[in-house]
Specification:
mainly alpha; 0% strand; globular
């Protein structure tokens, strides 16, 4: 069995952050290419209604899955602390209990609730009829077949928190290669296999994630990983561990729900525009795909800051933990600057990848990318400091910050523009400005809260 990487708590801090960040950044970039392939193929086979359907459905899928997977945030807090303290048994028991909870919630929460709630969710966000026709089967497949993705998320979070970021990278590459292969066949059809359109993308994701989850579970029962399951482990839940998972994870789950409700409300505002279908397509491509070139790396840095801060706090080195967020933010700002310049200088070719560089949708897309070039700088700082807060166990502060910055600020701006601007009414540019203001607020509040240092006094309980 592998041992914990002690360079995270003993070696140069910048190197420790980078060691954990680059595999996750690369995994997110490779995994994100799957979404690019999905949107590009659907855009060519189905049209902009297909792009809008995937964008809206993915937003709703995230809204459903984020609460279920909130326990993985709590798991990450515990695992990083125990790994920093060198407590192998506590790490294994924590991850195993998170696995049991994930299985139960995927089978008895996500699948039945998601299937029956899908039509209502699409109606709630004012999805255009031609978009809803494509989106409903896609969303139902994604929600009912979420088991594989939940196990993949659990494995990735547990291993990164324990200091192993390379195994999740390998699993992520496997997932992406399988997904792209299935989607090429299922979206457009091949030989005797008919074209499933947008639904083919959902079927491909379900099949690829299911295979990857099986491989990941097999690895847990070997000596290949820093985390290990054994056949003697009981199926009986350990409620003391599960309470700790939700103690730290529940605020993150509520935070995720708040942020995604805000995202759904933004989609709803977009749906109220005169050119709603074109604007939803631009949003799906610009914000959920192209902007991901910044969020892919920023989420990787958030995980690295979380694991580095948590392990160093577990090892009794709070000053090193305090430096982790700044180290991650410096890397993120460099990436966000490069990508932001691309948004400003070559928006047409970027949108052209998705067949969205002409007409009204193209004009709206270019406008959105100009705003996102600025927003990316704030996002990467916000996520780096959010990761450090969560890694040390302060999962409540990011919740409060997100409610203010991702709900009150952007929704307030959109509501004001829709209600008090007279005949002008709500414009797409108002929504894009609201996104930038929300990200700027989140970055500012996250930095200020982390520097207060209240996280240094948070204690965790190891399993008996």
């Amino acid at each position: 069995m592998k041992t914990f990487d002690r360079s995270i708590v003993d070696g140069p801090l910048q190197n420790a952050v980078w060691k954990l960040a680059w595999p996750t950044m690369l995994q997110n970039i490779i995994g994100g290419m799957q979404g690019v392939v999905d949107h590009a193929m659907v855009g060519h086979y189905v049209g902009h209604a297909g792009n809008a359907a995937i964008g809206v459905s993915v937003q709703l899928w995230i809204l459903m899955i984020v609460f279920v997977s909130s326990m993985f945030t709590g798991m990450g807090v515990l695992v990083s602390r125990f790994a920093g303290a060198g407590n192998t048994e506590a790490v294994n028991r924590t991850v195993y209990q998170a696995f049991l909870a994930a299985v139960i919630m995927a089978m008895f929460v996500m699948a039945p609730v998601g299937y029956f709630a899908a039509p209502w969710l699409l109606t709630m966000v004012h999805t255009a009829p031609e978009v809803q026709h494509v989106a409903l089967p896609f969303l139902r497949i994604m929600l009912v077949c979420s088991f594989g993705m939940l196990i993949f998320f659990m494995m990735s979070g547990a291993l990164r928190a324990a200091g192993d970021a390379k195994t999740p990278l390998r699993l992520g590459i496997m997932l992406t290669v399988l997904n792209i292969g299935f989607n090429i066949v299922l979206i457009g059809g091949l030989g005797p296999i008919p074209a499933f359109g947008a639904s083919g993308a959902a079927i491909g994701t379900a099949m690829a994630s299911g295979i990857t989850a099986i491989v990941a579970l097999w690895m847990l029962f070997t000596d290949r990983l820093v985390v290990k399951f054994t056949r003697t482990m009981s199926f009986k839940p350990d409620w003391a561990v599960i309470r700790e998972l939700f103690r730290f994870g529940l605020p993150a789950g509520v935070q995720g729900i708040a942020m995604n409700i805000a995202g759904v409300m933004l989609v709803r505002f977009i749906g109220s525009l005169p050119t709603s279908a074109e604007a939803q397509a631009a949003y799906a491509v610009g914000y959920t795909q192209l902007f991901s070139m910044i969020t892919w790396t920023s989420v990787g840095l958030m995980g690295a800051a979380s694991a580095t801060a948590g392990q160093n706090l577990g090892a009794g080195q709070p000053e090193r933990a305090a430096q982790a967020a700044a180290a991650a933010a410096k890397i993120g700002l460099g990436v966000a600057t490069v990508v932001g310049l691309a948004f400003i200088l070559i928006p047409g070719p970027l949108l052209g990848i998705f067949n969205l560089n002409d007409g009204v949708a193209g004009d709206i897309g270019r406008q959105l990318l100009a705003y996102l070039a600025v927003s990316g700088l704030f996002v990467t700082v916000a996520l780096s400091f959010t990761g450090a807060l969560q890694g040390t166990g302060d999962t409540k502060s990011p919740l409060y910050i997100s409610v203010v910055s991702q709900v009150l600020v952007p929704i307030g701006i959109c509501t004001f523009a829709q209600t008090f601007t007279g005949t002008r009414g709500l414009q797409a540019s108002d929504i894009w400005l609201a996104i930038v203001c929300g990200h700027a607020t989140r970055a500012t509040l996250s930095v200020l809260r982390f520097r207060q240092g209240a996280w240094k006094n948070i204690a965790v309980k190891a399993p008996a």
